[in-house]
Structures are given as C-alpha cells and as structure tokens.
Amino acid sequence: MGGRKQSNIVNEEIVVKVGPRGDVVSRSVEWDESSYGNVKQILVTHGNAINSIQIIYDINGTVALAHRHGGDGDYFDCSNIVNEEIVVKVGPRGDVVSLSAEWDESSYGNVKQILVTHGNAINSIQIIYDINGTVALAHRHGGDGDYFDCISFEPSEYLTSIGGHYGPVEQRGAAVMRSLEFGTNRRKYGPFGWEEGTPFCFDFHSGLDFGGFHGRSTGSHLSALGIYVKSISLKHHFKPDPPQRHAAPPRLCSASVDPCACVPKHGLRLAARHSPTTLPLCYSVMTL
C-alpha cells in the first residue's frame, strides 16, 4: 500500500517512517537519513524528472553535508570542502563520454574576463581570473574559431547564470557546445555560437556563489562545460574535520578533485531509493 511503514525510537523520540513513493521494488539503492537534524538547504538537479537530491543539515549547530542521491553518474563528483567552504560540482553538460580532455578550474578566483572563439559552435573558452589581486590567465580549452569575443567584467560584476546549447555539428558527430550565454548581476552576454541542439542552464540562486568552471575539450571545440557552486549563506563548522582541499594558485593546468567526506549516519527521516539517470536540464538550489 506504500503508507506508514514502521515506528521506532530515536533519542527518546518516536519516529515514524512514511513511504517512500515511487519505485520501491527495483534494484535501486536504498538510502536513509534518519534524525540528521534541521534542514538548512536542499539541492535538486532536474530536467524532465528529478535527477538527484542532496541535503545540508544543521546538527546541533554543526553544518553537515549529506550524500548526493542520484544525478550524473560517473561525471559528478560529490560535494567537497575547499578552504572551509561547501563546494558542489555540477555537470558538465555536453559530450561526457568521448576521449576529449577533461579540465578543472575550481576556486581559481573571481572571473575578470571570458574569452570565447566560436562559429557554428563554441570552439574554445579561456578565463582570466583575479586571485587575491593577482591577474591569472588560465589555459585555453579548445581551438580556433571564425569569431572572437572578449567579455570584461566590472569590479562589482559577477556571474549569476550560464546557459546555452549542445549537440553535434554534423550528423552522427560527437556533441560539442553549440552556444553559450553568460548572465551577471548587470547584464547578459551573448549568445555566442549557434542556438541549436539541447538547451541547458545553470542558475545561481540566493545563498550561492559561482565557484569555478570544469569541462572537456578537444583540439577544435569545447566539448562540455560545467560549474562549481559554493554556499555563501552558512558558516561551516565540521566535527570531526573531514579531509579538506586548499585551493592553490593556478598552475595554468587542470587541477584534480579530491573525493569528499560525507557525514556519518547518526541520528527528521528521509528514506528513498535512487539510481543514476540522464543528465538534468537545469540545476536549482533552495535555501530554507
């Protein structure tokens, strides 16, 4: 019947397990977050279905990031901690299965300029960062294009959204980024390239900040693009301290991403099943 399942006692409280609704008979992985604490944030990836959910809890004053349930499969790294901030890797969108080279620019700094070459697709992207007052030019990802555009940000300007399209340029060809558009707190830039293929969007809601780019590229095109987002609405104190990765100045090469440490299951109850699904179209975060 799928109604009330069971009752038990957690920390002298009666806890009733209700549901879940959905697929409860397949071999999807069952998970449980019983009595973790008060919910601070809910992270949801979605398109024509819910791809994943991830919860940030407040456990007696300690902010704890739980596991991510569902999502992009092998191409999503679990949330981790960079310089004591919660950083979430989202995406990438585009070609994530070919032999294109993977690159990562997590927590490099504030974006000063974005350099884009394009024609009927996005040929390359290159970012100029401001790292504690030092201007750093990162690698160019991709190749030459018919047109070149340079986006220059004002000192108080920052990214609020990134969108575009991806798909093959030729029939049966590999997917590449076909167009890109960047939104800031001041204006929109683009679109660059051709608005053909599958649309995607990354929107930064209240309480979030842009944390960096990652993606894949070949010698001729930008194959895939993803982002990092970091929470700016919470003070994070983890006990015991999980492994941390301190962001180093750019070495003008791809950076590796260490695995994260997720909270242990100790003592609100969330219980459900999940399985890897297709990539989501949009990514949203709600701050409670």
**Architecture of the largest domain in CATH?**
Aligned Prism
The major sheet is characterized as: 8 strands, mixed
SS elements, strand count: 22
Give the CATH topology of the largest domain: Vitelline Membrane Outer Layer Protein I, subunit A
InterPro entries: Jacalin-like_lectin_dom, Jacalin-like_lectin_dom_plant, Jacalin-like_lectin_dom_sf
Organism: Musa troglodytarum (fe'i banana)
GO molecular function, one term: carbohydrate binding
Protein name: Jacalin
Tell me what you see in this structure.
This protein has 2 domains: 1-78 and 262-288, no CATH class; 83-233, Jacalin-like lectin domain (Vitelline Membrane Outer Layer Protein I, subunit A). The strands form 5 sheets. An 8-stranded mixed β-sheet has the order 6-5-4-22-18-15-16-17, with no helix packed on it. Strands 7-8-20-19-9 form a 5-stranded antiparallel β-sheet, with no helix packed on it. Strands 10, 11, 12, 13 and 14 form a 5-stranded antiparallel β-sheet that branches. Strand 15 and strand 16 (175-184) form a beta hairpin. With 288 residues, it is mainly β. Mean pLDDT is 73; it is low at 73-79 and 233-288. The two termini are 32 Å apart. Helices cover 0% and strands 55% of the residues. InterPro entries: Jacalin-like_lectin_dom, Jacalin-like_lectin_dom_plant, Jacalin-like_lectin_dom_sf.
